[in-house]
Amino acid sequence: MKILITGTSSGIGKGCAEFFLKKGHEVYGFDKNAATIVQPGYTHFCLDIRNKDSYPELPPVDILINNAGTQNGNDIDVNLKGTIAITETYAIHPGIRAVLMIGSASGHNGSEFPEYVASKGGVLSYAKNVALRIARYGATCNSLDFG
After folding, report:
1. 68: three-class secondary structure by DSSP
2. Do the beta carbons of residue 100 and residue 142 sit within 8 Å?
3. What is the pLDDT of residues 6-50, one digit of tens each?
4. What are the strands, taking DSSP E only, across 1-147?
């Protein structure tokens, strides 16, 4: 399978990429930072998910994991608008199998900074929208919200 993961230079995104690589899948990683994974099957693109003009042309992906995020005043642009742009570009097609949003409990309980809460609440609502739209392809969309 072909998997696209945003935010792969560290943390959850890097862990997800390494997991799929160990299973023999082809992984595309997007991150504003340089690659920290050097393995066969991994292709890294150094880009800012807010900049649609920097998105590479990729073959259709089977799985999209929206992991890139921030809590620094660019929350709405990165966490919400960037996630929407990536998803609309790469995940809404008949071959998609799954979309996963890495969210936050803050999207449910409102217990963080206002812009961060709004961005993660928006991601949660957007996940529901995507789920409805890709269900016709037999695919799922979920938001993993922890905090």
Report:
1. coil
2. yes
3. 999 999 999 999 999 999 999 999 999 999 999 999 999 999 999
4. 2-6, 26-31, 42-46, 63-66, 98-102, 140-144
CA distances 19 to 33, 46, 54, 80, 83, Å, are 20, 20, 26, 25, 22
> What is the pTM (predicted TM-score) of this model?
0.96
Question: H or E segment at 84?
Answer: helix 83-90
Contact in structure between 134 and 140 (CB atoms under 8 Å):
yes
Residue count (the chain): 147
Nearest to 8 by CA among 49, 40, 53: 49
Give per-residue pLDDT as tens, 61-78. 999 999 999 999 899 999
Amino acid of residue 116: Y
